[in-house]
Amino acid sequence: MTQPRGKEQAGRGVPAGRDRRRWRLVCAVLLVAAVLAAAAWVLLGSRLLVVRHVEVSGTHLVPRDRLVHVARIRLGLPMVRLDTGAVAGRVRRLREVESVRVKRVWPGTVRIEVRERVPLVAVERAGRYYQLDRFAMVVVDSAQRPALPLLTAASPGPEDPATLAALQVLQELPESMVRRLVSLEAPSPQAVTLRLGGGGLGEDDAGPLTVVWGAPGRAAEKLRLVEALRRTSAGRSAHTIDVSSPEVVTAR
């Protein structure tokens, strides 16, 4: 028995439909591959998206040329190949740098944003003055004494508790007091002493003043006690005020 003509044609149409779908799939895959290849060429192989400029912001202590040299960013490098973490790590090794952020700014700029360390005190060693930041890290050094309070400690540095205590005390002080601060002594973390220049804590105060501060903390309370004592006759004539124990304040 012969098969009806209509069914025979329908049977022949099934493979043809599958072939068309297969070819569409192949064309779609080839198109995606071509797009990806073109994108990879633009990102990695062409001269369209490469490093052309390096911008630096936030620097005052570090010369720009020195920072760029340390960053070692190669002009002409494809932007996508730039290792921003490695660049930041190299810049962070500069002693003047506290933190850094490296960003790609498309199509061809690398931006280095630096936060520099802020010197707070100076330490004298063998005729040179080393400026320390809040973490007791050396920022810069010079043969001339800078316009900073001079810190005296047995082993000044980031691992020394006495140094860190003195720096913490310094950051607790009001700006008006810091401006008159000549030096700090920190034989131990609990025995920080401040030496103020002429003028003390107020414009009418006469002569230098030594404040035995003690350990960090309770800054507001200690400041109120010092200011209150300086308003008395005994306080105005005193050369040393001891607020290391706020419960027992002495002046001499």
From TrEMBL:
Gene3D superfamilies the record matches: membrane protein fhac
Compartment annotation: Membrane
Chief subcellular location: membrane
GO cellular component: a single term: plasma membrane
Transmembrane portions of the chain: 25-44
Keyword Glycoprotein included in the entry's annotation: no
GO biological process per UniProt: cell division
UniProt keyword Cell cycle, yes or no: yes
Keywords (A to Z) from UniProt: Cell cycle, Cell division, Cell membrane, Membrane, Transmembrane, Transmembrane helix
Domain POTRA: 49-117
Coiled coil residues, start to end: none
PANTHER family: CELL DIVISION PROTEIN DIVIB, CELL DIVISION PROTEIN FTSQ
Name of this chain's protein: Polypeptide-transport-associated domain protein FtsQ-type
Source organism of the structure: Thermomonospora curvata (strain ATCC 19995 / DSM 43183 / JCM 3096 / KCTC 9072 / NBRC 15933 / NCIMB 10081 / Henssen B9)
